Amino acid sequence: MIKAFGDFEGGELTYFPNDDKSVDLDKLKMKDSKTFDLSADLAMFNGNSAHEVSDFEGTRFSVVYFTLGCHAKAKKEDMAQLKKMGFLVPAPDEDQFALLGKPGSKGKPLLRSWNANQLATKKRKL
Description:
Elements: E1 2-10, E2 13-15, E3 34-36, E4 41-45, E5 51-53, E6 56-64, H1 76-84, E7 111-115, H2 116-121
Antiparallel strand pairs: 1-6, 2-3, 2-5, 4-7
């Protein structure tokens, strides 16, 4: 997930949701990409697929949260330590594509985005 903050112009995220690394980057077609205004949107995407951020002017801060799909290879003692620190730790057999589909797959979204201003106004149920 990525969100940008600050006093800036530009800096949009361009993402190729179906890129499975089988095509050279210079052969990807812009018509197959999606673009997000990171000053307004929170975007969740597979960072293994091709993506770029356009040039920007001003002061820009980005918050990026990412996870690795290789959690099943983690040492049990490392996973226990993460749990002890309060992290939610996936089970070894948990589907790494549960929230976002694998590039080229059908049925699950390949990216998600939310308008950050609308998120701030929604009331949460406890």
